């Protein structure tokens, strides 16, 4: 079973990359997002977004290859001994064995319980990946979002994409044997003699709940037959238990009270899950609690974010919290269409736009953060701000054109619309077939549905989608 699956997957990805070569962006895992399901279900996408749609389909394929995921995949059980408990180790904590008095070298297992662990902010302890519940959940959440978007491009009530989501969601959440218990008692656990319990910072591990909520809401609104009533009520029941855990246990309470990005991401989860369980007033309530609470202190008069600026990777953390603030704004705008979260100000009178404008002036190399994946964290933030606040001077599009000319082929370009000025300007002309003549479909069509008078790249794309759709199994 495994070799043929692997072979056919490689084959179809190869075909995808050969046929739509320059038209997809390599996968980028962005901090967080909430994609308005009504915008997706309406499906009135500009024909400039065809490249983004192709990337989304490719990303769905790429991510799904490592699923399904389960907390029971890890070989080391949580201190409870319950293999259904989520566990992760605090990423910046390191053992200090200098004072434990051992006369021989300790095994890793002995170190975990014997040596005190100390915090070195920003320095990842590589052994945190010995267990990777956090990586598994991150893949799950991206996979659910991109598969749901890919499903939405087809005018069908069932598809390979939505079948995958059904299976992945069941294995991670609902299935009795493999499902996660609805708590984070052992997340970002500091080890050592006084450790072995989760820290509130570990609540951050499940920030991708906002992506999952987007994906499931899309399946629901499109009446997807693979997302059955049983799955839906199972996930609603799971989410209600988890919301209660978040709101009544110290780690959840402390995390949402954190003044920095941890607090912002905590509200991403709470608000998204309240929408998912159909508690719209509760979602509005929790989001308002964010905007009337910790948000007030997050952006100062110069647009800087003092709690992120003081960290070891200030460029990354500024963009990270921007992603969380943008997600909170999208959630509130969806939960209460009469609200105007983009105009809400902090105590100093600043908005999300002020924070983005300030961050655009930061040179990442000053803090040694020039690696391309860190530099790239700002792009979707720029696009989100440009789409929401407008871009009358053209400075946002100009920045993207200069630093990331292929931005129109990034997944987020699908929903960060409209980019004012000329939305087709970003990336056009230097990305193979999509930028050339005759590609794409009329307004209102999507990549997989674009069959009326298709250009060359559309024909290639449809062929690739069909092959992927029929050949890939998991
Ligand atoms: C993780 O667990 C699920 C459910 O048991 C299983 O289907 C999957 O193959 C496992 N993944 C790995 C990498 O072992
Ligand atoms: C004590 O254990 C640590 C961790 O294995 C090791 O680095 C150190 O060398 C050990 N001390 C002695 C004296 O063996
Ligand atoms: C997550 O996905 C990436 C990309 O496919 C893969 O390299 C990684 O092993 C996956 N991690 C887990 C825990 O599934
Ligand atoms: C979707 O499919 C239905 C039934 O097959 C058809 O009536 C409808 O026109 C299609 N919609 C689009 C946008 O193609
Ligand atoms: C799963 O567990 C629940 C509660 O423990 C039980 O009610 C349910 O029947 C079980 N489902 C299966 C498929 O075993
Ligand atoms: C889903 O079903 C509902 C109720 O039957 C219907 O009103 C709605 O139009 C359907 N939505 C789509 C996108 O098919
Ligand atoms: C709003 O939140 C407060 C606590 O912050 C709570 O007492 C109240 O019941 C909530 N209202 C709704 C509608 O969820
Ligand atoms: C805003 O925060 C930054 C970073 O902490 C600081 O350098 C700057 O002086 C602050 N500006 C104001 C007006 O407080
Ligand atoms: C902010 O509020 C003003 C006045 O109500 C409105 O014109 C503008 O569109 C709002 N901006 C955003 C980004 O919502
Ligand atoms: C895209 O849509 C615009 C406006 O509807 C139209 O003028 C243009 O010709 C279309 N481009 C392609 C390549 O279909």
TrEMBL record:
Gene3D superfamilies referenced in this protein's UniProt entry, alphabetically: Chondroitin AC/alginate lyase
Entry keyword annotation includes Lyase: yes
Any GO CC annotation of this UniProt entry: periplasmic space
Gly residues bias (residue ranges): 424-441
Pfam families per the UniProt record, alphabetical: Alginate_lyase
Recorded superkingdom: Eukaryota
Disordered: annotated span: 424-447
Spans traversing the lipid bilayer: none
Annotated GO MF terms: lyase activity
Entry keyword set: Lyase, Signal
Signal sequence residues: 1-22
Matching InterPro entries: Alginate_lyase_dom, Chondroitin_lyas
Residue stretches making up the Alginate lyase domain: 70-360
SUPFAM superfamilies reported for this sequence: Chondroitin AC/alginate lyase
Name of the protein in question: Chondroitin AC/alginate lyase
Organism: Roridomyces roridus
């Amino acid at each position: 079973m495994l070799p043929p699956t692997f072979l056919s997957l490689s084959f179809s990805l190869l075909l995808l990359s050969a046929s739509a070569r320059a038209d997809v962006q390599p996968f980028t895992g962005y901090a967080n997002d909430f994609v308005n399901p009504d915008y997706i279900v309406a499906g009135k996408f500009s024909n400039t977004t065809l490249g983004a749609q192709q990337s989304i389909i490719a990303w769905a394929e790429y991510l799904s290859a490592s699923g399904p995921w389960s907390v029971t995949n890890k070989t080391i059980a949580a201190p409870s001994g319950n293999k259904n408990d989520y566990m992760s180790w605090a990423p910046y904590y390191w053992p200090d064995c200098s004072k434990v008095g051992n006369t021989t070298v300790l095994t890793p297992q002995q170190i975990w319980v014997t040596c005190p662990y100390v915090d070195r902010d920003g320095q990842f302890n590589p052994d945190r990946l010995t267990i990777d519940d956090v990586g598994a959940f991150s893949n799950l959440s991206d996979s659910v979002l991109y598969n749901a978007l890919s499903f939405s491009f087809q005018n069908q009530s069932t598809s390979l994409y939505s079948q995958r989501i059904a299976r992945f969601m069941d294995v991670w959440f609902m299935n009795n044997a493999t499902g996660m218990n609805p708590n984070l008692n052992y997340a970002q656990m500091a080890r050592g003699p006084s450790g072995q319990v989760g820290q509130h910072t570990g609540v951050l591990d499940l920030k991708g709940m906002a992506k999952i909520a987007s994906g499931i809401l899309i399946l629901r609104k499109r009446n997807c037959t693979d997302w059955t009533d049983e799955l839906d009520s199972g996930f609603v029941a799971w989410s209600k238990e988890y919301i209660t855990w978040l709101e009544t246990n110290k780690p959840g309470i402390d995390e949402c009270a954190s003044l920095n990005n941890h607090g912002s991401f905590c509200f991403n989860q709470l608000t998204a899950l309240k929408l998912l369980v159909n508690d719209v007033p509760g979602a509005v309530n929790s989001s308002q609690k964010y905007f009337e609470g910790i948000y007030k202190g997050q952006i100062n008069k110069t647009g800087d974010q003092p709690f992120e600026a003081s960290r070891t990777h200030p460029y990354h953390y500024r963009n990270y919290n921007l992603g969380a603030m943008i997600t909170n704004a999208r959630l509130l705008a969806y939960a209460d269409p009469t609200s105007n979260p983009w105009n809400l100000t902090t105590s100093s009178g600043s908005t999300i736009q002020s924070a983005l404008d300030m961050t655009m002036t930061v040179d990442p190399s000053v803090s040694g953060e020039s690696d391309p994946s860190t530099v790239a964290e700002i792009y979707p933030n720029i696009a989100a701000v440009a789409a929401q606040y407008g871009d009358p001077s053209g400075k946002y599009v100009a920045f993207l054109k200069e630093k990331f000319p292929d931005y129109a082929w990034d997944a987020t370009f699908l929903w960060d619309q409209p980019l004012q000025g000329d939305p087709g300007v970003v990336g056009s002309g230097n990305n193979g077939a999509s930028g050339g003549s005759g590609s794409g479909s009329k307004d209102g069509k999507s990549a997989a549905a674009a069959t009326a008078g298709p250009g060359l790249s559309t024909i290639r794309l449809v062929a690739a989608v069909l092959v992927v759709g029929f050949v890939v199994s998991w």
